[in-house]
């Protein structure tokens, strides 16, 4: 697992950890703080629900992830999840359960809980699954930004700034390369004909008399700069971006 990538995925995430056992709450919250920069704790379901509401009132946003025990005083894990889903129906919740608490699991499965972990926690498995979940959260958040197109795990197109970004660094593109990238990404999955691309890319250069040779040369340079862009040649028709 790539720990640097995990840190990238989790750096803006807020987590609420709910556990009534004092020792386990202290131990596991320390592990969570190694993963997430912002971890709040609650001692039972009722305390968690109050902190969940308080957090929204202060920030106008919800916790990205809630991790909760099942069997707790005042308000157990099932009651907590039911209450959270009434507030935010797509709230991500992970449940930690003891081996003798399976009678609680069926109601939680029916509620649509994201994941279960059985105590004692296998930390390596937990980290691997957290990595996958946080990757999903990270990319879902990116996709909510209409100015950003995710091409793959590390390559993005910023529509507003007209920049191709690889591993958080902008790739140096010429004006014509930018026009090409912009066109094939806006037509993702659709074929752009050679004539269309030439008209869009070289529309200002009247004296050049651009043709397919110019286009092939541009694509050759672009493939060297950004091989992950996956520019596909559709023989006799044109080019497209292959997701």
List the helices and strands and how they pair.
Blueprint: H1 3-10, E1 14-18, H2 22-35, E2 38-42, H3 45-59, E3 65-69, H4 77-87, E4 93-97, H5 102-111, E5 115-118, H6 123-144, E6 148-150, E7 155-158, E8 163-166, E9 169-170, H7 175-186, E10 192-193, H8 194-201, H9 212-225, E11 231-234, E12 238-241
Parallel strand pairs: 1-2, 1-3, 3-4, 4-5
Antiparallel strand pairs: 6-7, 7-8, 8-9, 10-12, 11-12
Describe, in plain words, how this protein is organized in 3D.
It is a single chain. Helix content is 47%, strand content 19%. It has 243 residues and is of the alpha/beta class. It has 2 domains: 3-144, Rossmann fold; 148-241, Orthogonal Bundle (Arc Repressor Mutant, subunit A). The chain has a 5-stranded parallel β-sheet. Strand 6 and strand 7 form a beta hairpin. Helix 4 runs parallel beside helix 5 (102-111). The longest helix is centred in the middle third of the chain and has 22 residues, at 123-144. The mean pLDDT is 87. Keywords: DNA-binding, Phosphoprotein, Transcription, Transcription regulation, Two-component regulatory system. InterPro entries: CheY-like_superfamily (IPR011006), OmpR/PhoB-type_DNA-bd (IPR001867), Sig_transdc_resp-reg_C-effctor (IPR016032), Sig_transdc_resp-reg_receiver (IPR001789), WalR-like (IPR039420), WH-like_DNA-bd_sf (IPR036388).
